[in-house]
Amino acid sequence: MKILVINPGSTSTKIAVYEDEKPILLRNITHTAEELSPFGDITEQQDFRRKIILNELHQANIPLEFDAVIGRGGLVKPIAGGVYEINEQMVNDTLHGCVMHNHACNLGCLIAYEIASTISQCKSFIADPGVVDELSPLARISGSPLMPRICIWHALNQRAIARRYAQGIGKEYEDLNLIICHLGGGISVAAHEHGKAIDANNALDGEGPFSPERAGSLPAADLIRLCFSGQYTEKQLLKRIAGQAGLTAHLGTNNMREILERIKEGDEHAQLLVDAMLYHTARQIAAEGAVLCGNVDAILLTGGMAHSDYIVSELRRRIGFLAPVYVFPGENEMEALALNALAVLQGKREAKIYQ
User: Fold this and answer.
1) Which one, of 308, 306, 351, lies nearest residue 158 by Cα?
2) How far apart are CA 116 and CA 64, in angstroms?
3) Per-block average pLDDT, block size 10, for the chain (355 residues)?
4) How high is the pLDDT of residue 331?
5) Displacement of CA 352 from its chain's centroid (Å)
6) Residues with Cβ within 8 Å of residue 114, at least 6 apart in sequence
7) Which of 126, 129, 113, 130 is nearest to 83 (CA)?
8) Going edge to edge, which strands form the sheet with 325-329?
9) What angle do CA 123, 128, 132 make, to 5 degrees?
């Protein structure tokens, strides 16, 4: 089976070609600010990015002969976890206002659907988008009926890591209770109970620990006062929640290698902020232990920051009493997408219908 994988980010487009489980092409195409400046809305970049993908395949002498094209799922309406065959309703929801946020990942389904439609008997899919919602009824309730809790989290990578861990110990993901923490530009923490994430934070919009790029939970009354202060526009304040928040707001950079190097060189302020971020992350992980009533088989740490021995050791020091801690550094989205598509093509998993 030949599979094309498409994973758009804000300033890059990752693509991969797999033959069954084997990657035969991996590319990370970066886009400069100048290249993206003509586009107002992210969805306007669809044609630009599609042409770049097709050119990259042409340069690698890979013909447009695929059994499936799978894209990173966008932020459409909340859905259950799994693989979804892209249909017109998903495309329409992405293009015409049902999406929850204007994020580059929304291009994943649009481009996958467009490319697959030009190839005979080729299917297009998304898998475990960031809006996967399997929250328990208790988790949905907040202190205001105007604002029920929702989750936007790293569902794709978390579920892939959960399955990898389960396979490694000879069990099924559905047999385990896990707490998984994705440590990236945003930090998401979820309680996985027998194959479902029954609690997870909104890692994009302002809930949970702050991170290199996001503010996490903020004092609500102070935020309201800031909104009415006249000092900022709505767009500017939203950037202060996600993008220009967290360590970026405090230290002027989201580059964790640079920040950790500053700590090594004796920057006490940088150390205070990173330690505070890890303190709040550990607190969120411990809270998910209460969600699972202390019945936790393992805690899994993943994402780019999990490469850092300092970050892992500090988290392990604070949360190791809850359950054994295992580390799966990096993001495994390309492989996860390919294997999800392959499972459907091989009849091992059934594609769901988006509606």
Assistant:
1) 306
2) 9
3) 95 96 96 90 93 97 97 91 96 79 88 98 96 97 96 95 97 98 96 98 94 96 97 94 94 95 97 98 98 98 96 98 97 94 97 95
4) 84
5) 20
6) 46, 50
7) 126
8) 196-200, 187-193, 177-183, 298-303, 325-329
9) 130
Rounded to 10 deg, the angle between the 106-116 and 46-59 helix axes is 60
Contacts of 310 (CB under 8 A, 6+ apart): 260, 263
Residue 101: predicted pLDDT: 72
As a residue count, the chain comes to: 355
Six token digits for residue 15: 């693509």
Type of residue at 310: Y
13, containing H or E segment: strand 12-19
In sequence order, which residues have a C-beta less than 8 Å from that of residue 253 and are 6 or more positions away? Answer: 247, 259
Q: Measured at the alpha carbon of residue 267, what is the angle toward residues 262 and 272, in degrees to the nearest 5?
A: 105
Contact 273, 251 (CB under 8 A): yes
Q: What is the pTM of this model?
A: 0.92
Tokens of 74: 């966008």
Q: Which residues pair with 15 in a beta bridge?
A: 6, 27
Tokens read off for 128: 């475990």
| DSSP per residue, 297-349 | SEEEEEEGGGG-HHHHHHHHHHHTTTS-EEEEEB--HHHHHHHHHHHHHTTSS
